[in-house]
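Progress against Task 2.4 (sequence-to-structure conversion) is shown through the following example record, which the project officer requested during the mid-term review.
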Amino acid sequence: MADDNSQNGAVNKASIFKGDRAKSQQFLGELYLYFLGNSKCIRIDDDKVKCALSSTSKKWTTSLKQAYLGGV
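Structure tokens generated for the chain above:
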């Protein structure tokens, strides 16, 4: 996972996903743990989608991000 917040009890944010299918299950697991650990601020699916999209860095996600944000 990306950040080391173990001292304050926070759950680390998921590592940046770069589209490697072999690492997709690990990424989804990290997201799941992050959602559980931050359930007070990540309450609805919309929040989860934003978090997941912000944790990706591949060209193919650009169109997904634009569609989600309404073409911004």
